[in-house]
Amino acid sequence: MGKNLIQQRRGRGTKTYTSPSFRFKGEVKHYPVDAAGTVVDILHCAGHSAPLMAVSYDTGDVGLHFAPEGIKVGDELSVGGVVDVSIKPRLGDVRMLRDIPEGTLINNLELRPGDGGKLVRSSGVFAKLVSKSEKEVRVLLPSRKEKIFTPDCRASIGLLSGAGRTEKPFLKAGTRFFRMKAKNKLYPRVCGISMNAVDHPFGGKCSHIKGRPTQSPRSAPPGRKVGKIAPKRTGRRR
Hints:
Number of domains: 2
Radius of gyration: 23 Å
CATH topology of the largest domain: SH3 type barrels
CATH class of the largest domain: Mainly Beta
Low-confidence stretches: none
Mean pLDDT: 88
């Protein structure tokens, strides 16, 4: 009798592999209607790497935004609305890309109009609006790649706070364990050839000695389909 691989055990949906979302502050999305708001608190959320800010809108609702660098409690911001392009946007403002001046640093960028923001949401990152026309807007992403968006997509103004978070060393495995547990990431990760034969197709033999090739056929059943899935070619390219 063998036992399930990790990718098979995940499918059962037990607490070991379920994200602890009950400890998260909430979902971060752009407010769906035009409104003005005030920053009432700066929050820490285990589910997000960047600090969050609670914004109280003039409609009576309270929503969550990613906190840009330099913002503080009591600052005012606006979401949408008819904007005079000549007015310089404030930190935290949410505007359509057509209303944002070229060269502005932005975050929480929408892929499609109205989706609430999908890109540039990690701590310390930013995107830069490079150029725009009537039909498209070109944005430089943190990966240094340029992507074209529709002018109706919205984004928040500013560089996300929390830069330098990854520069602090963990120093010991226990600290790394609790950091990974906060978002329910699998830790530690062990390579297949270090496992026993009952735990993984690559397991068995001596440690770190491959007992079989790392490519698997396309017709392999679930659990056996690990490694290189039906590669087009193997070996060094000459």
